[in-house]
Amino acid sequence: MTENEKQHTWLKTLGIILATFIGAFLAFYLAINLTINRMLSPEYHINKMEKMIQKQERSFRKMEDKMMENPFEPKMAPMLVNLVKEPNEYKVIVDLKPLGGDEKNVNVKYENKMITVFGEMEKSTKHEEKIMNFSQSYYLNEDVNIDKMTKEKRDNKYIITIPFEQDEE
Q: Which domain holds residue 35?
């Protein structure tokens, strides 16, 4: 390699290093300049404050909701018991999901044309204990034949069938 070629290779390498340094400096300068301009912009601070205010409002709403709750007031649960009147029978349908899917947690009592369905379940874990109970009563117009009452579990439904005689008019 001649002296001229060596000098040319050295100048080429120096040019690449210098161009890389200048490019890195310009990229750094541009990034810093954009960041500083953004931080000095009133819009940036307004948006930041709006986000902080929204976060505080959500926090206050949650706190207010908790303060308004009465810990001794029972929570409303969805209907667990439904009564269906069919041509010659009543069907009392009990949702067993909240009761652990076990029909043994359900009791039925009939007295003075009133049928009452009771349910109760206790569930304990390491950190908490949950007690779920309910009672639902229905007045039955017809004279039912309580001795022919049947109880059947289908999936998560407990179906109590109570036949009655239709009055012929």
A: 3-68
Cα–Cα dist 107/135, whole Å: 9
Residues 52 and 95 in one domain: no
pLDDT at position 91 is 92
Question: Which strands sit side by side in the sheet containing 129-139, from one edge to the other?
Answer: 106-111, 114-124, 129-139
Beta bridge partners of 136: 117
Question: How long a stretch of residues is the chain?
Answer: 169
Residue 128 sits in a domain of what CATH number? 2.60.40.790
The yes-or-no verdict on residue 36 having pLDDT over 80 is yes
Q: What is the pLDDT of residues 67-95, one digit of tens each?
A: 777 666 666 556 778 889 888 898 999 88
Say if 27 falls within a structural domain.
yes
- Please state, in angstroms and rounded to a whole number, the distance separating the CA atoms of residues 80 and 95: 5
DSSP string, the chain: --HHHHHHHHHHHHHHHHHHHHHHHHHHHHHHHHHHHHHH-HHHHHHHHHHHHHHHHHHHHHHHHHHHS-TTSPPP----EEEEEETTEEEEEEE-GGGTT-GGGEEEEEETTEEEEEEEEEEE-SS-EEEEEEEEEEE--S-B-GGG-EEEEETTEEEEEEEBPPPP-
pTM summary value: 0.51
